[in-house]
Design brief:
Layout (H helix, E strand, L loop, with lengths): L1 H12 L7 H13 L2 H19 L4 H22 L1 H22 L2 H12 L3 H14 L4 H18 L4 H9 L3 H6 L6 H15 L5 H7 L5 H16 L1 E2 L1 H12 L27 H25 L7 H6 L3 H22 L5 H13 L2 H19 L2 H9 L8 H16 L2 H22 L7 H22 L4 H10 L3 H27 L5 H19 L1 E2 L10
Antiparallel strand pairs: 1-2
Length: 546
Protein backbone atom coordinates (compact mmCIF):
# COMPACT_ATOMS: atom_id res chain seq x y z
CA UNK A 1 0.00 0.00 0.00
CA UNK A 2 2.80 2.39 0.93
CA UNK A 3 4.68 1.62 -2.30
CA UNK A 4 1.47 2.16 -4.27
CA UNK A 5 0.88 5.53 -2.63
CA UNK A 6 4.45 6.61 -3.30
CA UNK A 7 4.20 5.57 -6.96
CA UNK A 8 0.83 7.28 -7.40
CA UNK A 9 2.07 10.45 -5.73
CA UNK A 10 5.17 10.59 -7.96
CA UNK A 11 3.09 10.05 -11.12
CA UNK A 12 0.69 12.87 -10.23
CA UNK A 13 2.90 15.41 -8.43
CA UNK A 14 6.44 14.62 -9.58
CA UNK A 15 9.46 13.07 -7.90
CA UNK A 16 10.24 15.92 -5.49
CA UNK A 17 6.65 16.14 -4.30
CA UNK A 18 6.93 12.73 -2.65
CA UNK A 19 8.50 14.49 0.35
CA UNK A 20 4.98 15.77 1.14
CA UNK A 21 3.60 12.25 1.49
CA UNK A 22 4.64 11.40 5.11
CA UNK A 23 2.80 14.35 6.74
CA UNK A 24 -0.11 13.91 4.31
CA UNK A 25 -0.48 10.26 5.34
CA UNK A 26 -0.09 10.98 9.05
CA UNK A 27 -2.59 13.86 9.06
CA UNK A 28 -5.05 12.23 6.65
CA UNK A 29 -5.12 8.90 8.49
CA UNK A 30 -5.53 10.67 11.82
CA UNK A 31 -8.71 12.35 10.63
CA UNK A 32 -10.09 9.23 8.93
CA UNK A 33 -9.25 6.61 11.55
CA UNK A 34 -9.10 8.80 14.69
CA UNK A 35 -6.10 6.66 15.68
CA UNK A 36 -3.26 9.12 16.18
CA UNK A 37 -0.59 6.59 17.17
CA UNK A 38 -1.14 4.37 14.12
CA UNK A 39 -1.40 7.38 11.82
CA UNK A 40 1.87 8.89 13.03
CA UNK A 41 3.62 5.52 12.80
CA UNK A 42 2.44 5.07 9.19
CA UNK A 43 3.61 8.58 8.30
CA UNK A 44 7.08 7.92 9.72
CA UNK A 45 7.18 4.49 8.06
CA UNK A 46 6.31 6.05 4.69
CA UNK A 47 9.10 8.62 5.13
CA UNK A 48 11.57 5.89 6.03
CA UNK A 49 10.65 3.95 2.88
CA UNK A 50 11.11 7.05 0.70
CA UNK A 51 14.48 7.78 2.29
CA UNK A 52 15.70 4.22 1.76
CA UNK A 53 14.53 4.14 -1.88
CA UNK A 54 16.45 7.35 -2.48
CA UNK A 55 19.49 5.51 -1.11
CA UNK A 56 19.01 2.88 -3.84
CA UNK A 57 17.48 0.22 -1.58
CA UNK A 58 15.02 -2.03 -3.40
CA UNK A 59 11.34 -1.14 -2.88
CA UNK A 60 10.54 -4.41 -1.07
CA UNK A 61 13.64 -4.08 1.10
CA UNK A 62 12.79 -0.46 1.84
CA UNK A 63 9.32 -1.42 3.13
CA UNK A 64 10.74 -4.05 5.51
CA UNK A 65 13.77 -2.03 6.62
CA UNK A 66 11.70 1.13 6.91
CA UNK A 67 9.32 -0.56 9.34
CA UNK A 68 12.14 -1.23 11.79
CA UNK A 69 13.81 2.09 11.05
CA UNK A 70 10.82 3.86 12.59
CA UNK A 71 11.84 2.49 15.99
CA UNK A 72 15.61 2.14 15.79
CA UNK A 73 16.31 5.40 13.98
CA UNK A 74 13.65 8.09 13.89
CA UNK A 75 12.03 7.39 17.28
CA UNK A 76 15.50 7.30 18.84
CA UNK A 77 16.32 10.64 17.22
CA UNK A 78 13.11 12.03 18.66
CA UNK A 79 14.06 10.92 22.18
CA UNK A 80 17.79 11.66 22.17
CA UNK A 81 17.41 15.38 21.60
CA UNK A 82 18.17 16.93 25.00
CA UNK A 83 15.21 19.32 24.94
CA UNK A 84 12.87 16.46 24.03
CA UNK A 85 14.11 14.35 26.94
CA UNK A 86 13.50 17.27 29.27
CA UNK A 87 9.96 17.74 27.93
CA UNK A 88 9.25 14.06 28.58
CA UNK A 89 10.64 14.23 32.13
CA UNK A 90 8.77 17.45 32.85
CA UNK A 91 5.50 16.04 31.54
CA UNK A 92 5.87 12.78 33.47
CA UNK A 93 6.61 14.63 36.70
CA UNK A 94 3.64 16.93 36.13
CA UNK A 95 1.53 13.80 35.71
CA UNK A 96 2.96 12.44 38.96
CA UNK A 97 2.13 15.68 40.77
CA UNK A 98 -1.42 15.64 39.41
CA UNK A 99 -1.73 12.02 40.58
CA UNK A 100 -0.74 12.99 44.14
CA UNK A 101 -2.99 16.05 44.43
CA UNK A 102 -5.89 14.04 42.99
CA UNK A 103 -5.37 11.16 45.44
CA UNK A 104 -5.09 13.61 48.34
CA UNK A 105 -8.44 15.17 47.43
CA UNK A 106 -6.75 18.48 46.69
CA UNK A 107 -8.22 18.76 43.18
CA UNK A 108 -11.71 18.27 44.58
CA UNK A 109 -10.98 20.80 47.31
CA UNK A 110 -9.70 23.46 44.93
CA UNK A 111 -12.71 23.00 42.64
CA UNK A 112 -14.98 23.54 45.64
CA UNK A 113 -13.08 26.74 46.50
CA UNK A 114 -13.22 28.03 42.91
CA UNK A 115 -16.93 27.22 42.81
CA UNK A 116 -17.62 29.80 45.50
CA UNK A 117 -16.50 32.57 43.13
CA UNK A 118 -16.74 30.81 39.80
CA UNK A 119 -20.34 29.70 39.76
CA UNK A 120 -20.94 29.31 36.01
CA UNK A 121 -19.24 27.67 33.06
CA UNK A 122 -18.65 31.09 31.49
CA UNK A 123 -16.65 32.25 34.52
CA UNK A 124 -14.68 28.99 34.49
CA UNK A 125 -13.74 29.57 30.85
CA UNK A 126 -12.76 33.18 31.52
CA UNK A 127 -10.60 31.90 34.37
CA UNK A 128 -8.86 29.50 31.95
CA UNK A 129 -8.21 32.32 29.46
CA UNK A 130 -6.96 34.73 32.14
CA UNK A 131 -4.70 32.05 33.65
CA UNK A 132 -3.18 31.48 30.21
CA UNK A 133 -2.36 35.18 29.94
CA UNK A 134 -0.80 35.21 33.40
CA UNK A 135 1.51 32.27 32.64
CA UNK A 136 2.87 34.04 29.57
CA UNK A 137 6.53 33.13 29.91
CA UNK A 138 6.46 29.62 28.39
CA UNK A 139 3.98 27.73 26.23
CA UNK A 140 4.68 24.28 27.70
CA UNK A 141 4.30 25.44 31.30
CA UNK A 142 1.17 27.36 30.32
CA UNK A 143 -0.45 24.30 28.73
CA UNK A 144 0.18 21.79 31.49
CA UNK A 145 -0.39 24.07 34.48
CA UNK A 146 -3.60 25.71 33.28
CA UNK A 147 -5.15 22.65 31.66
CA UNK A 148 -4.66 20.39 34.65
CA UNK A 149 -5.74 23.09 37.13
CA UNK A 150 -8.93 24.28 35.40
CA UNK A 151 -10.16 20.98 33.93
CA UNK A 152 -11.97 19.73 37.09
CA UNK A 153 -13.81 23.05 37.35
CA UNK A 154 -15.00 23.10 33.73
CA UNK A 155 -16.00 19.45 34.08
CA UNK A 156 -18.23 20.44 36.98
CA UNK A 157 -20.09 22.97 34.85
CA UNK A 158 -20.26 20.65 31.84
CA UNK A 159 -18.02 22.73 29.60
CA UNK A 160 -16.75 20.26 27.01
CA UNK A 161 -13.09 19.40 27.30
CA UNK A 162 -12.80 20.13 23.59
CA UNK A 163 -13.74 23.74 24.29
CA UNK A 164 -11.38 23.95 27.25
CA UNK A 165 -8.50 22.56 25.18
CA UNK A 166 -9.22 25.17 22.46
CA UNK A 167 -9.05 27.97 25.04
CA UNK A 168 -5.86 26.51 26.55
CA UNK A 169 -4.20 25.99 23.17
CA UNK A 170 -5.11 29.56 22.18
CA UNK A 171 -3.19 31.03 25.11
CA UNK A 172 0.04 29.05 24.78
CA UNK A 173 2.22 29.83 21.75
CA UNK A 174 0.20 32.97 20.82
CA UNK A 175 0.92 34.44 24.27
CA UNK A 176 4.55 33.32 24.54
CA UNK A 177 5.33 34.51 21.01
CA UNK A 178 4.15 38.10 21.58
CA UNK A 179 5.32 38.48 25.19
CA UNK A 180 8.26 40.88 25.44
CA UNK A 181 9.65 38.66 28.22
CA UNK A 182 9.35 34.94 27.53
CA UNK A 183 11.35 31.82 26.72
CA UNK A 184 10.61 32.45 23.03
CA UNK A 185 12.06 35.91 22.73
CA UNK A 186 15.75 34.96 22.63
CA UNK A 187 15.12 32.49 19.81
CA UNK A 188 12.96 34.90 17.81
CA UNK A 189 15.39 37.82 18.17
CA UNK A 190 18.30 35.56 17.23
CA UNK A 191 16.59 34.56 13.97
CA UNK A 192 15.65 38.16 13.20
CA UNK A 193 19.21 39.34 13.87
CA UNK A 194 20.77 36.70 11.60
CA UNK A 195 18.36 37.55 8.79
CA UNK A 196 19.06 41.29 9.10
CA UNK A 197 22.82 40.71 8.94
CA UNK A 198 22.37 39.03 5.58
CA UNK A 199 20.56 42.10 4.22
CA UNK A 200 22.89 44.79 5.54
CA UNK A 201 19.93 46.72 7.00
CA UNK A 202 20.87 48.67 10.12
CA UNK A 203 18.09 47.65 12.50
CA UNK A 204 18.14 46.39 16.07
CA UNK A 205 16.58 42.88 16.20
CA UNK A 206 14.72 43.63 19.43
CA UNK A 207 13.25 46.77 17.88
CA UNK A 208 12.08 44.74 14.88
CA UNK A 209 10.47 42.26 17.29
CA UNK A 210 8.64 45.07 19.13
CA UNK A 211 7.51 46.91 16.01
CA UNK A 212 6.32 43.67 14.41
CA UNK A 213 3.82 43.11 17.28
CA UNK A 214 0.95 45.05 15.61
CA UNK A 215 1.42 42.81 12.57
CA UNK A 216 0.90 39.57 14.56
CA UNK A 217 -2.69 39.53 13.35
CA UNK A 218 -3.53 35.87 14.02
CA UNK A 219 -2.11 35.81 17.54
CA UNK A 220 -3.63 39.17 18.53
CA UNK A 221 -7.00 38.35 17.03
CA UNK A 222 -7.09 34.97 18.75
CA UNK A 223 -6.07 36.29 22.16
CA UNK A 224 -8.39 39.27 22.03
CA UNK A 225 -11.41 37.42 20.71
CA UNK A 226 -11.40 34.44 23.12
CA UNK A 227 -13.17 36.30 25.98
CA UNK A 228 -15.74 37.70 23.51
CA UNK A 229 -16.28 34.18 22.16
CA UNK A 230 -16.79 32.85 25.69
CA UNK A 231 -19.32 35.59 26.54
CA UNK A 232 -21.18 35.06 23.26
CA UNK A 233 -21.78 31.43 24.25
CA UNK A 234 -22.10 30.51 20.58
CA UNK A 235 -20.42 27.67 18.72
CA UNK A 236 -20.57 26.02 15.33
CA UNK A 237 -19.32 22.88 13.61
CA UNK A 238 -17.74 20.06 15.62
CA UNK A 239 -17.38 22.30 18.69
CA UNK A 240 -21.15 22.84 18.82
CA UNK A 241 -21.69 19.08 18.74
CA UNK A 242 -19.12 18.61 21.50
CA UNK A 243 -20.85 21.22 23.67
CA UNK A 244 -24.28 19.67 23.14
CA UNK A 245 -22.89 16.23 23.91
CA UNK A 246 -21.20 17.50 27.06
CA UNK A 247 -24.43 19.13 28.30
CA UNK A 248 -26.31 15.85 27.93
CA UNK A 249 -23.68 13.76 29.67
CA UNK A 250 -21.58 13.79 32.81
CA UNK A 251 -18.89 15.74 30.97
CA UNK A 252 -16.47 12.79 30.92
CA UNK A 253 -17.31 10.35 28.14
CA UNK A 254 -15.98 8.22 25.34
CA UNK A 255 -14.03 11.03 23.66
CA UNK A 256 -11.88 11.30 26.75
CA UNK A 257 -11.18 7.59 27.15
CA UNK A 258 -7.85 7.64 25.33
CA UNK A 259 -6.34 9.62 28.18
CA UNK A 260 -6.24 7.75 31.47
CA UNK A 261 -8.17 9.52 34.19
CA UNK A 262 -7.55 9.18 37.90
CA UNK A 263 -10.53 6.96 38.73
CA UNK A 264 -8.06 4.39 40.14
CA UNK A 265 -7.73 6.61 43.21
CA UNK A 266 -9.93 6.35 46.27
CA UNK A 267 -10.73 10.01 46.87
CA UNK A 268 -10.92 11.00 50.57
CA UNK A 269 -14.26 12.11 52.09
CA UNK A 270 -15.21 15.66 51.11
CA UNK A 271 -14.45 17.06 54.57
CA UNK A 272 -10.84 15.89 54.13
CA UNK A 273 -10.42 17.31 50.62
CA UNK A 274 -8.30 20.35 51.45
CA UNK A 275 -7.78 22.87 48.66
CA UNK A 276 -4.28 23.76 49.78
CA UNK A 277 -2.93 20.25 49.10
CA UNK A 278 -3.43 21.10 45.40
CA UNK A 279 -2.94 24.87 45.47
CA UNK A 280 0.43 24.86 47.24
CA UNK A 281 2.16 22.47 44.76
CA UNK A 282 0.79 24.44 41.80
CA UNK A 283 1.97 27.72 43.34
CA UNK A 284 5.38 26.15 43.96
CA UNK A 285 5.47 25.07 40.31
CA UNK A 286 4.67 28.60 39.11
CA UNK A 287 7.11 30.33 41.48
CA UNK A 288 9.89 27.85 40.73
CA UNK A 289 9.34 28.30 37.00
CA UNK A 290 9.29 32.11 37.16
CA UNK A 291 12.25 32.25 39.54
CA UNK A 292 14.09 29.49 37.71
CA UNK A 293 13.89 31.36 34.41
CA UNK A 294 15.62 34.35 36.01
CA UNK A 295 18.18 32.21 37.90
CA UNK A 296 18.99 30.05 34.87
CA UNK A 297 19.46 33.09 32.66
CA UNK A 298 21.53 34.93 35.26
CA UNK A 299 23.87 31.97 35.79
CA UNK A 300 24.40 31.46 32.06
CA UNK A 301 24.71 35.14 31.16
CA UNK A 302 28.20 36.26 30.29
CA UNK A 303 28.96 39.93 30.72
CA UNK A 304 28.80 42.66 33.32
CA UNK A 305 25.90 44.64 31.88
CA UNK A 306 22.60 42.86 31.43
CA UNK A 307 18.90 43.57 31.22
CA UNK A 308 15.88 41.51 32.29
CA UNK A 309 15.14 40.80 28.65
CA UNK A 310 18.65 39.42 28.13
CA UNK A 311 18.43 37.36 31.31
CA UNK A 312 15.20 35.66 30.20
CA UNK A 313 16.54 35.19 26.68
CA UNK A 314 19.62 33.42 28.05
CA UNK A 315 17.61 31.07 30.32
CA UNK A 316 17.18 27.33 29.80
CA UNK A 317 13.37 26.89 29.95
CA UNK A 318 13.45 23.10 29.76
CA UNK A 319 15.80 22.76 32.71
CA UNK A 320 13.67 25.26 34.65
CA UNK A 321 10.49 23.27 33.98
CA UNK A 322 12.14 20.16 35.40
CA UNK A 323 13.16 22.10 38.53
CA UNK A 324 9.60 23.29 38.96
CA UNK A 325 7.85 19.98 38.33
CA UNK A 326 10.22 18.04 40.59
CA UNK A 327 9.80 20.56 43.42
CA UNK A 328 6.03 20.56 42.98
CA UNK A 329 5.90 16.75 43.12
CA UNK A 330 7.86 16.70 46.37
CA UNK A 331 5.72 19.43 47.92
CA UNK A 332 2.53 17.64 46.81
CA UNK A 333 3.72 14.46 48.53
CA UNK A 334 4.56 16.29 51.75
CA UNK A 335 1.17 18.07 51.70
CA UNK A 336 -0.65 14.76 51.25
CA UNK A 337 1.13 13.22 54.23
CA UNK A 338 0.69 16.26 56.49
CA UNK A 339 -3.02 16.54 55.63
CA UNK A 340 -3.55 12.98 56.81
CA UNK A 341 -4.94 11.74 53.50
CA UNK A 342 -2.14 9.29 52.78
CA UNK A 343 1.15 7.81 53.91
CA UNK A 344 4.48 7.63 52.05
CA UNK A 345 3.56 4.38 50.29
CA UNK A 346 0.29 5.89 49.04
CA UNK A 347 2.12 9.03 47.89
CA UNK A 348 4.55 6.97 45.79
CA UNK A 349 1.68 4.88 44.40
CA UNK A 350 -0.29 8.00 43.47
CA UNK A 351 2.77 9.55 41.80
CA UNK A 352 3.34 6.40 39.73
CA UNK A 353 -0.31 6.26 38.65
CA UNK A 354 -0.05 9.90 37.60
CA UNK A 355 3.05 9.15 35.54
CA UNK A 356 1.24 6.22 33.88
CA UNK A 357 -1.53 8.57 32.77
CA UNK A 358 0.97 10.47 30.60
CA UNK A 359 2.42 7.47 28.74
CA UNK A 360 0.07 7.59 25.74
CA UNK A 361 0.69 11.29 25.23
CA UNK A 362 4.44 10.76 25.50
CA UNK A 363 4.35 8.06 22.81
CA UNK A 364 2.42 10.45 20.57
CA UNK A 365 5.04 13.15 21.20
CA UNK A 366 7.90 10.78 20.37
CA UNK A 367 6.23 9.74 17.10
CA UNK A 368 5.52 13.40 16.26
CA UNK A 369 9.21 14.18 16.79
CA UNK A 370 10.10 11.13 14.68
CA UNK A 371 7.90 12.47 11.87
CA UNK A 372 9.62 15.83 12.23
CA UNK A 373 12.99 14.07 11.76
CA UNK A 374 11.64 12.41 8.62
CA UNK A 375 10.38 15.62 7.02
CA UNK A 376 13.67 17.36 7.80
CA UNK A 377 15.59 14.50 6.16
CA UNK A 378 13.31 14.59 3.11
CA UNK A 379 13.50 18.41 2.94
CA UNK A 380 9.70 18.74 2.97
CA UNK A 381 9.77 22.33 4.22
CA UNK A 382 12.22 23.40 1.51
CA UNK A 383 9.95 21.92 -1.14
CA UNK A 384 6.91 23.76 0.25
CA UNK A 385 8.91 26.99 0.21
CA UNK A 386 9.94 26.30 -3.41
CA UNK A 387 6.30 25.79 -4.43
CA UNK A 388 5.11 29.01 -2.83
CA UNK A 389 8.03 31.37 -3.47
CA UNK A 390 7.69 32.28 -7.13
CA UNK A 391 8.42 35.92 -7.90
CA UNK A 392 5.35 38.03 -7.07
CA UNK A 393 4.59 41.70 -6.57
CA UNK A 394 5.93 42.88 -3.23
CA UNK A 395 2.44 43.82 -2.06
CA UNK A 396 1.41 40.17 -2.03
CA UNK A 397 4.54 38.96 -0.28
CA UNK A 398 3.32 39.39 3.34
CA UNK A 399 0.22 37.32 2.56
CA UNK A 400 2.30 34.74 0.71
CA UNK A 401 4.75 34.52 3.60
CA UNK A 402 1.87 34.01 6.05
CA UNK A 403 0.50 31.17 3.90
CA UNK A 404 3.94 29.61 3.43
CA UNK A 405 4.65 29.69 7.16
CA UNK A 406 1.21 28.25 7.91
CA UNK A 407 1.51 25.36 5.45
CA UNK A 408 5.07 24.57 6.51
CA UNK A 409 4.23 24.61 10.21
CA UNK A 410 1.11 22.50 9.64
CA UNK A 411 3.03 19.88 7.67
CA UNK A 412 6.04 19.73 9.98
CA UNK A 413 4.33 20.32 13.33
CA UNK A 414 6.94 22.83 14.48
CA UNK A 415 6.59 26.60 14.64
CA UNK A 416 10.22 27.11 15.68
CA UNK A 417 11.48 25.00 12.79
CA UNK A 418 9.31 26.98 10.39
CA UNK A 419 10.70 30.27 11.69
CA UNK A 420 14.25 28.98 11.35
CA UNK A 421 13.61 28.07 7.72
CA UNK A 422 11.76 31.20 6.60
CA UNK A 423 13.73 34.03 8.21
CA UNK A 424 17.02 33.48 6.31
CA UNK A 425 15.15 33.00 3.02
CA UNK A 426 12.32 35.52 3.28
CA UNK A 427 13.77 38.71 4.79
CA UNK A 428 16.60 38.94 2.22
CA UNK A 429 13.97 38.40 -0.50
CA UNK A 430 11.53 40.98 0.86
CA UNK A 431 13.82 44.02 0.76
CA UNK A 432 14.87 43.93 -2.92
CA UNK A 433 11.29 43.06 -3.92
CA UNK A 434 9.98 46.10 -2.04
CA UNK A 435 12.64 48.45 -3.45
CA UNK A 436 12.03 47.17 -6.96
CA UNK A 437 8.29 47.75 -6.45
CA UNK A 438 8.82 51.40 -5.57
CA UNK A 439 8.69 51.33 -1.78
CA UNK A 440 10.50 54.38 -0.42
CA UNK A 441 13.58 53.85 1.73
CA UNK A 442 11.77 55.31 4.72
CA UNK A 443 9.02 52.69 4.43
CA UNK A 444 11.33 49.69 4.16
CA UNK A 445 11.47 49.32 7.92
CA UNK A 446 7.68 49.06 8.15
CA UNK A 447 7.70 46.48 5.38
CA UNK A 448 10.28 44.41 7.30
CA UNK A 449 8.10 44.60 10.42
CA UNK A 450 5.12 43.37 8.39
CA UNK A 451 6.97 40.41 6.85
CA UNK A 452 8.48 39.52 10.24
CA UNK A 453 5.02 39.46 11.81
CA UNK A 454 3.74 37.29 8.96
CA UNK A 455 6.49 34.70 9.56
CA UNK A 456 6.06 34.56 13.33
CA UNK A 457 2.29 34.39 13.42
CA UNK A 458 1.92 32.21 10.30
CA UNK A 459 4.11 29.62 12.00
CA UNK A 460 1.78 29.71 15.01
CA UNK A 461 -1.37 29.41 12.89
CA UNK A 462 -0.10 26.27 11.14
CA UNK A 463 1.13 24.84 14.43
CA UNK A 464 -2.27 25.57 16.01
CA UNK A 465 -4.03 23.50 13.33
CA UNK A 466 -1.51 20.66 13.08
CA UNK A 467 -2.33 17.32 14.74
CA UNK A 468 1.40 16.54 14.88
CA UNK A 469 2.37 19.71 16.77
CA UNK A 470 3.78 19.07 20.24
CA UNK A 471 1.88 22.01 21.80
CA UNK A 472 -1.39 20.78 20.28
CA UNK A 473 -0.69 17.30 21.64
CA UNK A 474 0.11 18.70 25.08
CA UNK A 475 -3.09 20.79 25.11
CA UNK A 476 -5.24 17.71 24.53
CA UNK A 477 -3.11 15.82 27.05
CA UNK A 478 -3.53 18.41 29.82
CA UNK A 479 -7.29 18.64 29.21
CA UNK A 480 -7.56 14.84 28.91
CA UNK A 481 -9.51 14.85 25.69
CA UNK A 482 -9.05 12.72 22.58
CA UNK A 483 -6.27 14.37 20.60
CA UNK A 484 -7.98 14.05 17.25
CA UNK A 485 -11.23 15.46 18.72
CA UNK A 486 -9.27 18.45 19.99
CA UNK A 487 -7.86 19.04 16.50
CA UNK A 488 -11.24 18.49 14.77
CA UNK A 489 -13.05 20.97 17.01
CA UNK A 490 -10.29 23.57 17.08
CA UNK A 491 -9.37 23.63 13.40
CA UNK A 492 -12.55 25.32 12.05
CA UNK A 493 -12.15 28.17 14.53
CA UNK A 494 -8.43 28.51 13.79
CA UNK A 495 -9.12 28.54 10.04
CA UNK A 496 -11.77 31.26 10.39
CA UNK A 497 -9.40 33.48 12.36
CA UNK A 498 -6.49 32.60 10.06
CA UNK A 499 -8.53 33.44 6.95
CA UNK A 500 -9.58 36.80 8.41
CA UNK A 501 -5.94 37.51 9.32
CA UNK A 502 -4.94 36.75 5.72
CA UNK A 503 -7.68 38.56 3.79
CA UNK A 504 -8.23 41.56 6.07
CA UNK A 505 -4.74 41.60 7.57
CA UNK A 506 -1.75 40.60 5.48
CA UNK A 507 -3.11 41.25 1.99
CA UNK A 508 -3.97 44.92 2.71
CA UNK A 509 -0.89 45.26 4.95
CA UNK A 510 1.19 44.71 1.81
CA UNK A 511 -0.17 48.07 0.62
CA UNK A 512 1.43 49.67 3.70
CA UNK A 513 -1.87 50.25 5.53
CA UNK A 514 -1.52 50.95 9.26
CA UNK A 515 -1.82 47.61 11.12
CA UNK A 516 -3.84 49.14 13.98
CA UNK A 517 -6.48 50.23 11.48
CA UNK A 518 -6.61 46.69 10.04
CA UNK A 519 -7.18 45.11 13.44
CA UNK A 520 -10.58 46.83 13.79
CA UNK A 521 -12.32 45.15 10.80
CA UNK A 522 -10.61 41.86 11.71
CA UNK A 523 -12.19 41.85 15.18
CA UNK A 524 -15.51 42.98 13.72
CA UNK A 525 -15.48 40.25 11.07
CA UNK A 526 -14.68 37.56 13.61
CA UNK A 527 -17.45 38.78 15.91
CA UNK A 528 -20.03 38.77 13.11
CA UNK A 529 -19.13 35.22 12.02
CA UNK A 530 -19.44 33.77 15.52
CA UNK A 531 -22.51 35.88 16.32
CA UNK A 532 -24.56 34.92 13.27
CA UNK A 533 -23.19 31.49 12.30
CA UNK A 534 -22.69 30.21 15.83
CA UNK A 535 -25.59 28.78 17.79
CA UNK A 536 -26.21 28.68 21.51
CA UNK A 537 -26.36 25.36 23.27
CA UNK A 538 -29.90 24.94 24.56
CA UNK A 539 -28.79 24.22 28.12
CA UNK A 540 -26.46 26.86 29.52
CA UNK A 541 -23.36 26.02 31.52
CA UNK A 542 -24.86 25.89 34.95
CA UNK A 543 -23.83 23.87 37.97
CA UNK A 544 -23.61 20.20 37.17
CA UNK A 545 -25.90 17.87 39.03
CA UNK A 546 -23.15 15.30 39.13
Amino acid sequence: LILGLITLFISIMGNNAVSLLPPVIAIGLAFVTKQVLISLFCGVWCGAVISLIRDNVSPAGAVVSGFFRVADNYAVKGMTDESHIMIILFSLMIGGMIGIITASGGMHGIVNQFSKKTDTGVKAQILAWASGLIIFFDDYANTLIVGNSIRPLTDKYKVSREKLSFIIDSTTAPVASVAILSTWIGYEIGLIGDALKATGVDLDPYSVFIYSLPYRFYALLLLGFIPVYILLKRDFGPMLKAEKRSQKSSGVEENYSDNTDFSVFKIPPENKCKWYTAAIPVIVLIIMTFGGVFLSGYLSFEGENWSLREIIGASDPFKVLIWGSLSASVVAGIAMILSGTGNLTEVVSAWIEGVKSMVTAMIILVLAWALSSVVIELKTAEYILFLLSDTLPYRILPGLVFLTASVTSFATGTSWGTMALLFPTTIPLAIPLALAGGVQAGEIHSYIYCVTGAILTGAIFGDHCSPISDTTIMASMSCRVSHIEHVRTQMPYAIVIGAISFFIGYLPAGFMINPFILLIPQFAGTYLIFRYIGKKVEQEHEISES
